[in-house]
From TrEMBL:
Gene3D superfamilies: FAD/NAD(P)-binding domain. Belongs to the paxM FAD-dependent monooxygenase family. The lineage of its organism: Eukaryota, Fungi, Dikarya, Ascomycota, Pezizomycotina. It comes from Exophiala viscosa. GO terms for molecular function: FAD binding; monooxygenase activity. Residues 4-331 form the FAD-binding domain. The keyword Metal-binding does not apply. It holds the Pfam family FAD_binding_3. Keywords: FAD, Flavoprotein, Monooxygenase, Oxidoreductase. This is Monooxygenase FAD-binding protein.
């Protein structure tokens, strides 16, 4: 019997394990390499939309997510003074329209679920392997890792996130030096807190717009709310980014309280007060790459590695999941038992580059538009140029919500992807 087609998957975040699942079931032999030596505590939370959840459903983890979380029922935007800017019940119709709702998840829970899911499929997951270099030939690719380790496979998929080594290496091979990611001038401090009573009546994604401060909050379980305060910060001062130590937490909370001291909704202050831990991020994105920079002959980029985004539209992970669906869909099924296996294999090699091309061509415009949209959304959220401009911003937000049809069309364009599902 022939050996299987080895696929080197770099990164065990969100896209990596999902692709490993798809490819394993299509007859490939994926190996997942993760630089972190023990996957565990990562970030705060994510809002999964029906487009992303549909893909997670295909790998069998949507049910578990639904059990732990709570379906989103609405959007609610307020000023910091408690004035309602707009609202929508659209999310309450997602399940009937798209088969799955929108749901907040704790990021750590999702990453561990995905890692366990691939481990159960007997996919080889190697933690503590950091990609350092890539060599390609006409019919294979060799990945070089830390500690002098190398593995050769048929092709390689870069799922290594915003700081991807795969992207840097692919660009370098074209003679391009990669620029640093762009600091958007904003930071986010995020926390997980017991849901305040006043927010329990309806599971909403809530935004509060203040002057130079923005807060977002949504439930990640019936009892827990994830929230984040977005603030401008001139320089990317990385010194106080990351997980806040328990000793510093009280002082940090006091500073955040000061930032919302004039706000009227008590729930905003309660969320900060109740946080079990705080984590602070600088917010970055990148200039878009041309679609032919998304791949080489034997390597292709997926998720944040291809299109890193700021989080203001909540689409980064959802788009990474769409990528996984489209890429695996365009790779042929390989059945080792079948009479045509040798032929299928022979055909795959020369076809890879056109498969990668078609995938990148399909995905690049949509993801680039969302990256730009997210950047603009961030700028709208955090207005620092005085009360007049804040008032204008508030009017703009309120006017946006009044155009019910445009809003519905915008969400439909997101949620109906990457495939139509039959509502159950
Ligand atoms: C504050 C914040 C809030 C967000 N909120 C949302 C949201 O609500 N909804 C949403 O859809 N998205 C959100 N995102 C975006 C989302 O987190 C990313 O888009 C998503 O995680 C991308 O998935 P990925 O698999 O491409 O990369 P990642 O999840 O980043 O995974 C990359 C993996 O590769 C590993 N790795 C890196 N380099 C190497 C190497 N050299 N060798 C081996 N392994 C390597 C990393 O350790 C990591 O495990 C948010 C992001 C931030 C920062
Ligand atoms: C937020 O608080 C910090 C101090 O912790 C302060 O420097 C900054 O100006 C505040 N920003 C706003 C918009 O209140």
């Amino acid at each position: 019997m022939s050996t299987k087609v080895t696929v080197l998957i770099i990164g065990c975040g969100i896209a990596g394990p999902v692709l490993a699942n798809f490819l394993k079931r299509k007859g490939y032999d994926p190996i997942v390499f993760e630089k972190v030596s023990k996957l565990g505590d990562v970030g705060a939370s994510l809002m999964l939309m029906p487009n992303g959840l549909k893909v997670l459903n295909l790998v069998g983890v949507a049910d578990e997510i639904e059990e732990a979380s709570i379906p989103l029922e609405g959007f609610l935007d307020h000023t910091s003074k408690g004035e309602l800017l707009g609202s929508s019940d659209l999310p309450s119709s997602f399940r009937s329209k798209y088969g799955l709702p929108a749901m907040g998840v704790k990021r750590t829970d999702l990453n561990l679920k995905l890692r366990d899911m691939v481990a159960n499929l007997k996919v080889d997951v190697r933690e503590g392997w950091e990609l350092e270099n890539i060599e390609e030939t006409d019919d294979s690719v060799t990945a070089h890792f830390n500690a002098g380790r190398s593995v050769t496979g048929s092709f390689l998929i870069g799922c290594d996130g915003i700081k991807a080594a795969t992207r840097r290496i692919l660009l370098r091979k074209e003679g391009l030096r990669e620029d640093q990611p762009l600091f958007t001038g904003l930071t986010q401090t995020a926390g997980l807190s017991r849901t305040p009573e006043t927010l329990k009546e309806k599971a909403c994604l809530r935004n509060w717009f203040g002057e130079g401060v923005h807060m977002i909050a949504y439930p990640v379980s019936p009892e827990t709310t994830s929230w984040a305060l977005t603030l401008p910060e001139g320089e990317g001062n990385e010194a106080d980014w990351g997980l806040c130590s328990p000793e510093e937490t009280t002082a940090r909370k006091e500073k955040l309280h000061a930032n919302v001291s004039s706000w009227t909704d008590r729930a905003t202050k309660e969320l900060i007060q109740e946080a079990t831990r705080l984590i602070k991020f600088g917010i970055f994105d990148r200039e878009e790459m041309k679609s032919d920079q998304w791949h080489s002959r034997r390597c292709v980029l997926v998720g944040d590695a291809a299109h890193p985004t700021s989080p203001h539209l909540g689409q980064g992970a959802n788009q990474a999941l769409e990528d996984c669906f489209h890429l695996s869909h365009s790779l042929p099924y390989l059945a080792p038992e079948s009479d045509t296996y040798e032929m299928d294999l022979g055909k795959l090699g020369p076809h890879l580059v056109s498969i990668f091309q078609a995938y990148a061509h399909k995905r690049q415009p949509r993801t680039s538009a969302l990256v730009k949209g997210a950047r603009a959304q961030g700028q709208t959220r955090v207005v620092t140029t005085g009360p007049e401009d804040c008032k204008k911003r508030n009017e703009k937000v309120a006017t946006g919500w009044k155009d019910v049809e445009t809003i519905a069309a915008k969400f439909d364009a997101l949620c109906r992807e990457p495939f139509q599902s039959v509502p159950s």
